[in-house]
Amino acid sequence: MARRREPRDVLEKMHSQHAQDKKNDRMETGSFPQVRKKPKRDLNRNASRARLLTSALVMVLCALLGFGYMTQINNTTSTYETMSESELVRLITESNTQLSNLQQRKNELTSQLNSLKSAVDEQEQAQRIAKQNEETSGLLSGRLPATGEGVIVTVGEGRDEKVDASIMFSLIEELRNAGAEVIAINDVRVVATTYIKDADTGLVSDGVTLTPSYVVRAIGNSQDLANAVNIAGGVGAQLQVKYGATVTVETSDTVEINQVRDDTQYKYAKTVE
To answer: Which keywords does the record carry (predicted)?
Structure first.
C-alpha cells in the first residue's frame, strides 16, 4: 500500500512547487510582499472623551460640596432652634460664668503687670541713684575727670619772694570756700588728703614736684570763684603785693580737669550700714 501512494505524493509536491514558482516569477525583481497597514488611532476622539469625563467628575464634586455646605448650615441653625428654654438658659448662664472668669483673670494679669512695671521703675530709680552716687563719689575722690564752668588761675614766679606752700594752700582753700567742686594744680588732682609743701625747685604736692608758673583749675560758679581770688585784701592781692607774683584769673564756661587719682584705701573709716 505504501508503494502505491508514493508516486502520487511526488506528483502533488511537484504541482505545488510549480505553482509557487509561477507565482514568484510574476513578482518584479526587488519588490516585497504587500503588508496591510494598521488603521491610525483617533487621538482627538480620546482627548474629547477624557475632557468630558473630567467635566462630569468636577460637576459631581461641586454638587457634593454644595450639598455638604447646606447641610451644615441647616444643622447649625437647627441646633439653637431645637434647644429647649432650659437648655438656652443653661447655655447663657455658662457663657456669663466664662465671661466673668475671663474678666477676673484679666484683672489679675493687669495687677501683675502694674506690679512688674512698678518694680522696674523702682529698680531703674535705684540704678539711677546708684549711678549718681558713683559719679559724685568719683568726682570727690578724683577717680573721674570733670568738666564745667569755672576759673583758671595762673600764678607766676614771685619777684620779691618765692611763692611758698602756705600761700598756695590759702588759694586752694579760698576756692573751696567759694564753692569749687573740683580743683587741680598743675598735674595734681586736689582731693581731701592733698598736701603742699615747699621744695628747692618750687613746691611738692602729693609727691609731685610743681614748678612755676602754677596753674590752678577750679570748677564751680565762675563769678564766685573769680571774686574769691580778686577780692580786695584777698589771696590774689597777697600774691601780688607780698610775693611780687603775677596773678591772672580767667573765667570760662568749659574748664576741663583730666587729672585723676586712684581709689583711696581707708584703713579706719567704714561706711555706716
So the answer is: Coiled coil, Membrane, Transmembrane, Transmembrane helix
